[in-house]
Design goal:
Elements: E1 2-6, E2 9-15, E3 24-31, H1 32-42, E4 47-55, H2 56-66, E5 77-80, E6 86-93, E7 96-102, H3 110-114, E8 121-125, H4 134-144, E9 150-154, E10 160-162, E11 168-170, H5 176-181, E12 185-189, H6 190-195, H7 203-211, E13 217-221, E14 227-233, E15 236-242, H8 256-271, H9 274-288, H10 300-310
Helix pairs in contact: 1-8, 1-10, 8-9, 9-10
Length: 311
């Protein structure tokens, strides 16, 4: 089994985080690293093939960091001129933040992805919103359609613009239906669902339009309030509300959506159930909030084992 992971790497730095963890000027691996490391910790029967660029200065440290995972093929990670995207996260509380992004990488070329085809699945996580073009996603879909390659798309920062001060802000996507049409399952959070269409659509109406495109499922994550999944069931839409997971202490919610995406992607690729995949992903993502940044992400390996035991 081969799983491709596509999305931009970034380096995260935190400000005004005193309410739930200690702030720091230190940069930590972020962006697609959350999804990649999650898969590395929960997958035992597949080769994970990340495809993204990294700045020259960070290339060797990143590859060295990933060597601890025997199931990750780093040959798709390529050097980029200049710096890796630096993201400053200014938190007001665990639910609200301002994001600033500098040195966003150019879109990942299709040729870099094509080198790993055929594959059983592709996780496309729009970390920066510029991770790949619609044309590249279309090529990926067309080339893999006859192979039944499963594509999970996390819309993420596709719904974010960027101003002259590098601050991200919500913006609608004119061709959002085309983006969704090219995937099998789509994920977004509540804010992204609100920002996505050019015209306002109640969340349920938005989901109905997405599923009418022929998708197998749609997920809306809700932070500390859990998540909601929708699936087609004999032309009827089934709604699955996933309650929050209670943790003793929330340290940092950064990357929880990226962890959720990876866990959902893997579980759905194995069991083809939106309900059980969303439940599994919600529990895995909760563990991600118990440490700062990506520092403790390998705890997810133990979390997976606990979930398997408790069901």
């Amino acid at each position: 089994m081969k799983l491709i992971v596509i999305g931009h790497l970034c380096l995260d730095r935190f400000e005004n985080q005193e309410t739930f963890s200690s702030g720091s000027d230190e940069f930590r691996w972020g962006g697609i690293f959350f999804s990649l490391a999650t898969l590395a910790n929960i997958v035992e029967d597949a080769l994970i093939c990340p495809v993204f660029g990294v700045g020259e200065e960070e290339y060797e440290p990143l590859v060295h960091r990933l060597r601890r995972y025997s199931n990750v093929d780093t040959s798709g990670i390529f050097r980029l001129p200049g710096a890796t995207n630096r993201v400053t996260l200014i938190y007001e509380n665990t639910e609200k933040r301002v994001e600033c992004s500098e040195s966003i990488a150019p879109p990942i070329p299709f040729e870099k992805i094509e080198a790993f085809l055929p594959a059983d699945g592709a996780l496309v996580n729009m970390i920066s919103g510029y991770d790949l073009t619609l044309d590249t996603l279309n090529k990926l879909r067309m080339m893999t359609q006859l192979q039944n390659t499963y594509i999970h798309l996390d819309l993420h920062s596709l719904t974010l613009g960027i101003d002259a001060q590098h601050r991200r802000f919500p913006q609608p996507i004119e061709n959002w239906r085309r983006w969704c049409y090219l995937a099998d399952t789509v994920q977004m959070n509540e804010e992204e669902a609100t920002a996505l269409p050019m015209e306002y659509l109640p969340e349920e109406d938005l989901v109905k339009q997405i599923l009418s495109l022929g998708l197998r499922g749609c997920i809306v994550t809700r932070g500390s309030r859990g998540a909601t999944g929708w699936a087609q069931d004999h032309k009827r839409i089934q709604r699955i509300d996933i309650p929050p997971v209670k943790m003793e202490r929330i340290v940092d919610p950064t990357g929880c959506g990226d962890v959720f995406a990876a866990a959902f992607f893997y579980h759905f690729s194995k069991h083809h159930s939106v309900a059980t995949a969303a439940k599994f992903a919600n529990r895995i993502a909760a563990f991600n909030a118990t440490y700062i940044g990506s520092d403790g992400i390998d705890i997810i390996s133990q979390a997976r084992k606990e979930i398997e035991v408790t069901g």
